[in-house]
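Re: Re: ligand-bound prediction request (bumping)

Still looking for help on this. To restate: I need the protein modeled with manganese (II) ion bound, output as structure tokens. Inputs repeated here so nobody has to scroll up.
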Amino acid sequence: MTQNPARTDHEPLRRIRDEILARHRFLITSHLKPDGDSIGSQMALAYALRAIGKDVRIVNCDPAQPGLLPFPGVSDIEIASRADGEFDAVIVLECSELARTGVAGLERFFVINIDHHAGNAMYGAVNWFDGGAAACGEMVFDVIRSLDVPLTKEMAMHVYVAILTDTGSFHFSSLSPRTFDICRQALEAGADPVWVARTVYDSNSIGRIRLSSAILSTLEVDPSGRLATIRLDREMARATGGSYDDLEGLINEPLTVKSVLAVAFFKEWEPGVYRVSLRSKGEIDVRSVAQQFGGGGHKNAAGCTVAGDLAAVCAQIVPPLLVAIGRSAQTNG
Ligand code: AMP
Ligand code: MN
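Reply:
Sorry for the wait, this slipped through. Here it is.
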């Protein structure tokens, strides 16, 4: 095998392998509003556990985004806000805290926590945190290899979609040679990168294009040209026929402007409550800004939920973002 033993032969991974082999009934879950990494990691692991005879149920609080529905097995994921049934272990992927699952009743079980979000609360009976993984899918790949399960086409597709989406299509600084080594192995096992990219990114409805155009027309850029903001409210979605659920990747548009180093996307979630998505380039740490508002994520992709009207929410978020941009400019200068 061509893998780096330092990454695949270590205590948390050995322990996870042993606990999986010793148990039979599994529940796999991930975070609210599951993204490509959540779904890809869950499905790849589910296929691997089933390949060695395990009984696996996948339960999420929210459905997968539309672009992920054509992937194998995704339509069988159960949507529930409670874990009903008996399980020998619950595997929680991509969650820095158990509450991020939105699924109640998990603490009754033996919890295996596998995550790459900085600040993971180590809430499991077994915890494997790797902040250097570009996607949780990289960690799941290691679990599959440690179980000696041959990588099938289905597993490979899911590992690949996890990495593709969680790296912002290979844009983020979390990328490593290992990321590409895993992608290479996924392609060798039958993942079709063209089909995956077309399916996740090119499955738009007309409503999405109209809504995207309305959102991008709200673009504002600060006088330095480095911070862009866009916004979305309920009325825009109603008027265009677009849905909040299929805006994956839109936040990256303003980042394609050369001068823009960070983007904030303000989404009206309910009256007086905004979900704020943050993205950045290079060393600019938007996670530290999200954390100031009770959120989290990664250096280049983070989010938080803030109460208030749009002007008040912007007035809170924009200054710390400008500070983060300025801090990085000093470090690099
Ligand atoms: P999003 O902008 O929703 O795509 O989220 C970007 C990243 O930030 C993902 O890794 C999310 O898991 C994380 N994130 C978003 N909102 C929150 C939150 N309220 N608390 C913790 N992490 C979050
Ligand atoms: Mn992830």
